[in-house]
Amino acid sequence: MSEIDFFHGTEPNQSIFRNYRQWAFESAALDLALKQSDTNLADRLGRAYDPVRFVVSTRLEEPPTGDVVLDWLDRNPELEFKLDPTSEWPTAVIERLAATDAVRTLDLKGQYHGTTVDQPADPELYERIIEGFPEALIEDPELNEETRPLFEGEDARVTWDYPIRGVETVENLPWEPEWLNIKPSRFGSVQSLFDTIEYCREHDIQMFGGGQFELDVGREHIHAVASLFYPNAPNDVAPKAYNDPDPSGDLPPSPLAPPTVSQGLSWQ
């Protein structure tokens, strides 16, 4: 499908949107092919579905207080989180969040440019995050003369997301990573996704899964991939109910139980 123009001659707002749309078609095609063969992805790969650990990804309120995280923990003290620090985070909020021991990943958004979530490189913020959360993964810093020295000795807990779109992009990172965020939609093709997963396995690079608000069965697809390759990692694949502005009822706890019966690329 790599030769098909899914935008019919028009140009998307960002080039990465081509990958997103290609993944939508290719994942659907894989799902259909597996179902037509009366099988599922786990069986075809000779693997088994394992329970999927997930973290809740959220941004703090404005001005940031950390109340949103504390409210979630009041509801379920076992929850873990992936947060997006901004320059507006005061030291008191960092200390408050660190005291929960529930923050597993901090996404600096330093690789985003021209989006609504850009967070320009901020050496003061980076230093406070590195020191305030000494055990957490730190994602997508922007590296420059001021920020690069801050990560000396911390390289092992830096993980990358936005730049990762295939094996070549992994090889082009500033250093060989210990961790990567694998978001299937960023890869575009099924081939690129599985080539990159295999590369990581061969090079002892740990992985965790990520999503981009996939709808309906698309959310199941990222659960299935996480279940097969990195089920025990801090996967940013919380069920969609966690993104409801006013969540109610019983929310699925982590880890998510694998399906007893599954077909295709689905996980339900």
Protein topology:
Elements lengths: L15 H21 L4 H5 L10 E3 L8 H9 L5 E3 L7 H8 L4 E5 L15 H10 L4 E3 L18 E3 L6 H5 L7 E4 L1 H4 L2 H13 L3 E4 L7 H13 L39
Parallel strand pairs: 1-2, 2-3, 3-4, 4-5, 5-6, 6-7
Task: Describe this protein's structure.
The protein is an alpha/beta fold and 268 residues long. The protein has a single domain, classed as Enolase-like C-terminal domain (TIM Barrel, Alpha-Beta Barrel). It is 33% helix and 9% strand. Helix 4 (91-98) links the parallel strand 2 (81-83) and strand 3. It is globular and about 55 Å long. The model has no long low-confidence stretch (mean pLDDT 93).
Q: Which characteristics define this entry?
A:
alpha/beta; 33% helix; TIM Barrel; 7 strands
Strand order of the largest sheet: 1-2-3-4-5-6-7
Instruction: Specify Rg, calculated over alpha carbons.
Output: 19 Å
Structural classification: alpha/beta
H/E topology pattern: HHEHEHEHEEHEHHEH
N→C terminal distance? 27 Å
Number of domains: 1
**Helical coverage, percent range:** 25-40%
Q: Count of helical segments?
A: 9
Q: Average pLDDT, to the nearest integer?
A: 93
CATH class: Alpha Beta
The major sheet is characterized as: 7 strands, parallel
- C-alpha geometry: globular
DSSP strand (E) fraction?
5-15%
CATH architecture: Alpha-Beta Barrel
Fill in the CATH topology: TIM Barrel
Q: CATH superfamily, called what?
A: Enolase-like C-terminal domain
Unreliable stretches (pLDDT < 50, length at least 5) are: none
- Report the count of strand segments: 7
